[in-house]
Specification:
The chain is α/β, with parallel strands linked by helices. It has 8 helices and 7 strands.
Amino acid sequence: MKWALIIGASGDIGAAVAKDLAAQGWSLYLHYNNNAARVASALAQFRQHYPQQDFLGIKANLLEKESAEQIEKQLFGIDAVIFAEGTTSYGLFSEMPPARLHEMLLMQVTTPLHLLQLLEKKLAQNHFGRIIFIGSVYGGTGSAMEVGYSTVKGALTAFAAAYSKEVASLGMTVNVIAPGAVATQMNALFSAQEKGQVDREIPLGRFAKTSEISYWVSALLDERAAYMTGQTIYVTGGWLK
């Protein structure tokens, strides 16, 4: 039985990934911080529908010291880690408080990368380990008014390109899935007019569904994806890239 850890399982994309993987036979560790109710509901549903698998919740605040160690201690076997956590911050970079940029880096880069240091031996044990980050098209193209977010997501692309070379001999792959505009709560702050404007800029004419992002996680977890590593896969509907 294979185990996957989903960091940010209470978010919209993380929840979609969990739903897909549970249906495909994975046992799951579902990480969350604030939205305990959503994860509790998912755990109850998965345990009812897939009694032959195991499902565990893990609460941890990625902004707190020792959070990576706290997560690692609760894991038994682990075959895949999917990082689906993250928030953005809108506004001019010159006006962004340094503390806010530090929080974004800590949550989306520093703590996840430290967790991977702690998990490397476990991920390499079966010569299969998969590491997947949910990045952003902005990590490649950059976005005015989201300079901090673009920087954070771009760091993930650089990390995957480099770290994948170190762990390839261990049978591990490291990739980034970089969506464009996705219909999630993070993008719910757009007004109808603003959303319509973005829709018109996207060749496919709409925001992505979360299931259209989680599909690519499943694809990279397939055993036949073992030769794909160090890559950033842009899933944008033709927008920006």
